[in-house]
Recover the amino acids of this structure.
């Protein structure tokens, strides 16, 4: 569903949850987001949150699934879910796993979940070619440097996004390492971005702040 919306030019807005709090997820739903992303097996720098294993996070995943939104999972770093756990995630309605290219393990490609591979600030043609070699893979353009997190989106960022779209020839998701605003939605669409992934840099970690920050971006993306 997320990929179909991207390919249809709908510019879906997704929220990456900075912590596993159902009220935070409900606030994102109230703000009109298309889908939700949660995390496993990882330390999340932007929020300072550590996320546990599938077994540890399963109660939250079960509750999140009941909200009825398309879901993605950042499945881990050095540690990844087993194939059986990935299949269980698919049963909950998770559509894809999303990790840095360097963390891909072969068994991940055997699951029903869509691969969404993240580039980093040093990625180039070789990394994009590696993603293109994976059948059905999409791209997350996670290209910001940590020192620049939270700064305004600028023309150089947009040019880099457009370059990645051209090189990848696949749907590309732009994560909010820069502080995306409603005014950025049409600019991101013009750069060829398929979906906006709004995270803690924009949303903060409290429900009301998330709702206020995200609702205008959703409205702008729908109008773009």
């Amino acid at each position: 569903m997320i990929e179909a919306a991207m390919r249809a030019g709908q510019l879906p807005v997704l929220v990456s949850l900075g912590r596993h709090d159902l009220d935070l997820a409900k606030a994102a739903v109230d703000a009109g987001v298309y889908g939700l992303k949660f995390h496993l097996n990882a330390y999340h720098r932007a929020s300072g949150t550590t996320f546990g294993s599938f077994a540890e996070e399963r109660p939250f995943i079960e509750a999140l699934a009941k909200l009825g939104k398309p879901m993605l999972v950042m499945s881990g770093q050095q540690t990844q879910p087993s194939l059986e756990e990935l299949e269980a995630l698919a049963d909950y309605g998770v559509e894809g796993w999303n990790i840095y290219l360097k963390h891909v393990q072969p068994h991940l490609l055997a699951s029903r979940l869509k691969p969404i591979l993240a580039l980093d600030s040093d990625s180039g043609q070789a990394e994009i070619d590696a993603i293109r070699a994976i059948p059905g893979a999409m791209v997350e353009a996670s290209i910001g440097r940590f020192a620049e997190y939270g700064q305004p989106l600028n023309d150089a960022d947009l040019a880099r996004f457009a370059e990645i779209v051209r090189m990848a020839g696949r749907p590309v998701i732009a994560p909010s390492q820069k502080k995306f605003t409603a005014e950025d939605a049409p600019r991101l669409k013009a750069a060829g971005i398929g979906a906006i992934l709004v995270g803690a840099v924009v949303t903060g970690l409290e429900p009301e702040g998330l709702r206020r920050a995200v609702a205008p971006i959703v409205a702008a993306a729908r109008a773009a």
Remarks:
- The first strand starts at residue 13 and ends at 16.
- The two ends are 19 Å apart (CA to CA).
- The domain at 2-223 is CATH 3.20.20.70 (TIM Barrel).
- The chain has nine helices and ten strands.
